[in-house]
Amino acid sequence: MLGLGLFLGGLGFALSLLYEAGVPLAVCLIGGVLVSAAGTVLSGHPVEDAGDLAPGSEPGTEQRSSFGDLHTLQARLAGAGSDPERFEERVRRPLADLTAERLRQRHDLDWLAQPSQARETLDPLLWALLTAPSGRFVASRAQVETWVTAIERL
User: Fold this and answer.
1) Which of 29, 47, 70, 110 is the 20 to 30 Å CA partner of 87?
2) Does the pTM of the predicted model rise above 0.70?
3) 105 contacts: CB under 8 Å, gap ≥ 6
4) Torsion-angle region of residue 66: left (phi > 0), alpha (psi -120 to 50) or beta?
């Protein structure tokens, strides 16, 4: 820390000579040490992460979908075509995430931690959306519209 502070102070003094500012060497050295000390102190402070603030959240989880993303579903559905894997990843998973988030916000339920209460609260179509194995649903516009309508009612 002291070495870095002296280096910064020397650099500041050199710049003051270059620009003919006339700052004394002692002021530059003290300023450099203070800047270095402040940087060291501030780097030791913990940084709050939104993931740390959410109760019951797992590290690395993030919300992937919101109702603002629904306008992109038509393009995602068209892009998924008849490929079941793409449908699962690009359409079903974001809708399942949206369902889980809506269930948490509106009913204060985590479907993984409280499956029986979540199953009672959810429409059977949404429960299947969350729990059915991959490849269970056919990629169709009608299926997606049914899910979206059920999510909106939730």
Assistant:
1) 110
2) no
3) none
4) beta
